Automatic annotation (TrEMBL):
It comes from Aerolutibacter ruishenii. Signal peptide: none annotated. This is Phosphoribosylglycinamide formyltransferase. GO terms for cellular component: cytosol. Coiled coil: none annotated. Belongs to the GART family. It comes from the Bacteria. The keyword Lipoprotein does not apply. Gene3D superfamilies: Formyl transferase, N-terminal domain. GO terms for molecular function: phosphoribosylglycinamide formyltransferase activity. The active site is at 109 (proton donor).
Length: 210
């Protein structure tokens, strides 16, 4: 089973989807620990409810981003994860933390990357007037939301959408998208080669569409 460390800052619905899939025998993985930058994150409660160790540390207690990340990742490394999953982890990570872990950290982001990086992606999509929006899972690199995209799910933007309705439509697709990606990774069908995402030994010309 793939050993996961999950980083989450808030609600934790993606984490819960992972925990439920594992409990149902639908994902061959084990969540070895959940880590947060917010002590009040609901994600921590989802973890503890399933007896997964859950830890939060606060950026306020560290002088720099690098110092915070060093503390965070020493906690993460202590559970010896095969893969680190950012599931609603809302802190920018320093290059010092990310670069040595290239290919071992993934993130789910609520847009069809490379479109709409950063925050408020649903409002960004509405403001841009796109007909299609969605979510992406990508390998994390030092460039914010800029690492190789592994898989995407698309949803239509419909008349009358506001950011909240659009976010809900995307979130519904995020959970199966993340699970499908984790299954590919657990089965060893995807890994990060020196020149990008590899799938069945071939560089993916475009991300998996799920
Ligand atoms: C999800 O929509 C995820 O894609 C997004 O935060 C939400 C977390 O929901 N992540 C980002 O915006 C990362 N920059 P959850 O806590 O219920 O899983």
């Amino acid at each position: 089973a793939l050993r996961l460390a999950v980083l989450a800052s808030g609600r934790g619905s993606n984490l819960r989807a992972i925990l439920e899939a594992i409990a149902r025998g639908e994902l061959d993985a084990h969540v070895a620990g959940v880590f947060s930058d917010r002590a009040k994150a609901t994600a921590l409660e989802h973890a503890r409810a399933t007896c997964v160790p859950a830890t939060a540390i606060s950026a306020k207690d560290y002088p720099t981003r690098e110092a915070f990340d060093e503390a965070m990742f020493s906690l993460v490394d202590a559970v010896h994860p095969d893969l680190i999953v950012c599931a609603g982890y809302m802190r920018l990570m320093s290059a010092d933390a990310v670069t040595p872990r290239a290919g071992r950290i993934i993130n789910i982001h609520p847009s069809l990357l490379p479109a709409f990086k950063g925050l408020h992606t649903h409002q960004q999509a509405l403001d841009a007037g796109v007909a299609e929006h969605g979510a992406s899972v990508h390998f994390v690199t030092a460039e914010l939301d800029g690492g190789p995209v592994i898989a995407q799910a698309r949803v239509p933007v419909v008349p009358g959408d506001d950011a909240e309705r659009l976010a809900a439509r995307v979130l519904e697709r995020e959970h199966p998208l993340l699970l499908a990606t984790l299954r590919e990774l657990a089965a060893g069908r995807i890994g990060l080669g020196p020149d990008g995402v590899q799938h069945d030994g071939a560089i993916l010309a475009s991300p998996l569409q799920l």
